[in-house]
Amino acid sequence: MASLSFERNSNNKTVALFFFIFTVTLSLCSPSSVAKLQHFHHRAKADGTLSFLVVGDWGRQGLYNQSEVALQMGIVGEKLDIDFVISTGDNFYDDGLVGVDDPAFHKSFSNIYTAPSLQKQWYNVLGNHDYRGNVLAQLSPILRKKDSRFLCLRSFILTTKIVEFFFVDTTPFVDDYFTNPEDHTYDWRGVLPRQSYLSNLLKDVDSALKRSTAKWKIVVGHHAIKSAGHHGNTQELESQLLPILEENNVDFYLNGHDHCLEHIIDAKSQIQFLTSGGGSKAWIGDIKWWNPGELKLYYDGQGFVSLEITKKVASFSYYDVFGNVLHKWTLSKESDSSV
Ligand SMILES: [Zn+2]
User: Fold this and answer.
1) Which domain holds residue 77?
2) pLDDT, tens digit, for every residue of 229-266?
3) Taking CA atoms, which of 1, 17, 26, 278 is between 20 and 30 Å from 145?
4) Where is Fe cation 2 bound in this sequence (predicted)?
């Protein structure tokens, strides 16, 4: 259309205007600006406080206590008047969704999390098991038409009044899925070429964190940066993502992947590492040694986590499959200074 209008009006002013628009369009399409993270806002409660649940590694059509965990999430969600739910990924086992009409979407999500308090927005990231299915289906807006709660993107930002969340697509960081996929097939559409995908993502997360003026900064990914569980630390994230979190004073890193509940405080950075991967199948007794000064909780059963955040205080609790509180922690930011 632009070139057509240019040919019809070939005076000097139109030519100059055309080249101006052409240059601006080109700069907007340059690779450095293509990968900007999508941004959402969630209105918190009137007083600005926020409460939400975190669950991971859940989609097993109700099996392995998924339904029991869902029941307790509903009870706790009601009590805390939650604003939304965060899923740390591995949303559909074993191999993600085969398409947008996969019945697993209803069997593992809509028909399981039925409590009134869970009829809120769910912010989901993808896990490695999700990448074994049709990733584009799980990211498709068609799923939102089937169940408006379900929002899944690769990486995105969620802003509330006092907390900003940075959701990071961690599966493409893990070398093994590329070099040693065993008998699994991963859907890397939208990820290749891998190196530019990862470097753009890291740049975008870093600049989004630097721009953030939020009181609390929370990063969410599927894979653990630090974990005493079966998979342990994800070295690729330790070397590539962790320095960015440390440099930008991130308060929490939330993840799943290890099927347990964990709380680790990094002695160096003071970042709180919360693993919530107990949405269904758990791995009993599967624990590595960890410095007890840093490991505040390791629970090798099913469950989930809640967070309640005000301007100055963040409290979080871990629950087992019966709704019992396993562990509680409170953090304070007394000073208004961001240092
Ligand atoms: Zn996983």
Assistant:
1) 37-332
2) 999 999 999 999 999 999 999 999 999 999 999 999 99
3) 278
4) 90, 128, 222, 257
